[in-house]
Amino acid sequence: MNDSDNGKYTIHMEETFDFLKLIDVPAVIDAHKTGWYNQTLCKVNGNLIRLGVFNEGDFHWHKHDNEDEFFFVLKGELFVEFNDETVVLKLHQGLNVPKGVMHRTYVKQPTAVIMVEGDSVTPTGD
Questions:
Q1: Is residue 125 part of a domain?
Q2: Does some domain include residue 101?
Q3: What's the predicted TM-score (pTM) here?
Q4: What is the residue range of 91's domain?
Q5: Which helix (H) or strand (E) holds 57?
Q6: How many domains does the chain have?
Q7: What CATH number did the domain enclosing 18 receive?
């Protein structure tokens, strides 16, 4: 089930992997070669572990009123833009964005990112 599929990006909120199930992250990345794809892998103590496979483009400006959002780059580079600066996350770098902060992400090359956020999150922003 797509919780959001507006033609620009696809977001799947349902958990793909249950407890004690192997999560083959490279296989998930390899299965998504186009667009902006976002999949919840699993839930850990009220937090969602999500995988973003971002092959091109950007995500709209948004904020989360009640949840922080953590990004960790597995492949490529992720640009996280704020009102007054842009942070470039390179391979194996992470960034914690506090709740209430307006931001948008974009890529210039195929990029894969692990995201951690509370299970009450609306990924497209509040």
A1: no
A2: yes
A3: 0.90
A4: 4-118
A5: strand 57-58
A6: 1
A7: 2.60.120.10
* In contact, 98 and 118? CB cutoff 8 Å: no
pLDDT in tens, the chain (126 residues): 344 545 678 888 899 999 999 999 999 999 998 899 999 999 999 999 999 999 999 999 999 999 999 999 999 999 999 999 999 999 999 999 999 999 999 999 999 999 999 888 877 665
On whether residue 72 sits in a domain, the answer given is: yes
Rounded CA separation 62/60 (Å): 6
94 CB contacts (<8 Å, ≥6 apart)? 70, 71, 72, 73
Q: What is the largest CA-CA distance in the chain?
A: 43
Asked, for residue 112, whether it belongs to a domain, the answer is yes
